[in-house]
## 1
Amino acid sequence: MLPKFVRDKFAGVQQPLGRWILRHILEFIVLSPAILVTWIWLKLRRKEVFFVGVGTSAITAFLQVLEPELRRRMSVEKTLARLIILNLSKDANSQIRLMYDRVTTIYGDEARFRRRIVWWASTLGQMKLKVVEILEAQNDPQWHFGKPVISINSEELRRGEEFLRSIGVKPDQKIVCYATRTASYYDGLKSEGVKLKAQTIRNPDERVYFEVMRELSRRGYFILRMGKDLSREVPEEYADFIYDYASKSRSEFLDVFLLFRSSCLISGATGIPMFRAIFNLPTVNSDTYRIHENWFKGDIAICQRVKFLADNRLATISEMVAMNDQFSDERYQARLGVAMVKNTAAEIL
């Protein structure tokens, strides 16, 4: 019987504990020569190792944690030469990874053996920096005061502009991107092995966004629908003024370019604003179901409201905070006696 403190230490391990410990002991014995050499190299070069992608391959686990750390180092040390990034999950976007590879050293799924050696050496040698939680990283002041560390280069800008011309965007025309949270996107993530609970009750009504885009199109904007693994295309009645990029042309490169290039992003409870935040570009966060301590630089947030079913009364912000996000969790709504009230087109506009 293993001592309780050992069982508690490894409580999150998703396999029999004894097998997990044995595997790591054997791995360390086999790799110990390489670990020792790597530890010496890290020590001599005064390297520090920062972990991202901990526990999930969602893009926020990479970007939201990495960007503030790089901004902080650039503002103080003016260089990223001492830093090594270990991405413990597979890349969620190849273009994002390419841009960060230009400015710092990252070991991910493409270098699993090297990543594992550095993991051992930095963990045992105390060169591993504190692991930062995703929500903790969102509250980092660097999102407001730091300068972006990555950029889109001239060749990428040229390719992106060629795409815009090919779909009918005029040279001087402003574009608006929008995306809404959908069940199909989260089903796609789960099929890839990402651990999550979709919580479809948080999803906005996309028909509201179609009407918002109709009005913005009348004002002269070119509208692009963003998203991934969407289950349906834009209905025919809206197809004249919404280019369904998500269904017709999506690529990881264009995801990044379009969100960089657009005059505005309207995000209906999605994680896509992260692609704007890394460039210090603002987003309209509509139908958001969380009350964050901090939003990204220049962002506007329009919360879904909470209604008490007993008396049909809207909850105050204080009452929503007191529920600790449980109002948007289908497991607790019945007990709380509440329902979500989605944003209207007028509120978003």
## 2
Amino acid sequence: MVLHRSFNSKIKVLLSFTLVVVSSFGFSADNNQALKFEDLPYKNAKVYCENDDNIYPDENDFEFIDYSAMSSEDGERYILATIKNTSSGFRILKQGDILAILGDCARINPKSFERKFKGGEVFTMRLFFGVNKFPILKVLI
């Protein structure tokens, strides 16, 4: 009977230890995926990167009210943007309407999306630009 109690105690300790270890891995993994807001030193400044391929956003009737960049430790790049349809009519905001300039001067569009806007509508949305080691410097619309 003493052997049985000792065995139960060891099992309880082992299960408790396993639970703590598994929980810490789970917490650690979620913590790495958290998004953090980034500073945008070029948000309101000119960026003099070469643009040999003449890559610009498509002509559109949208403007940024404001935007902020966010990233994860894994290099995921997002913006949280408040966008206005400056037209009085219905418009569709698409991937080609927005362009980010990265820290290596690359120009990239957000991942594919479409959002319908009524005339004059203002909407805040999150846009994903993929995974990149370079931060977003500026976003054009």
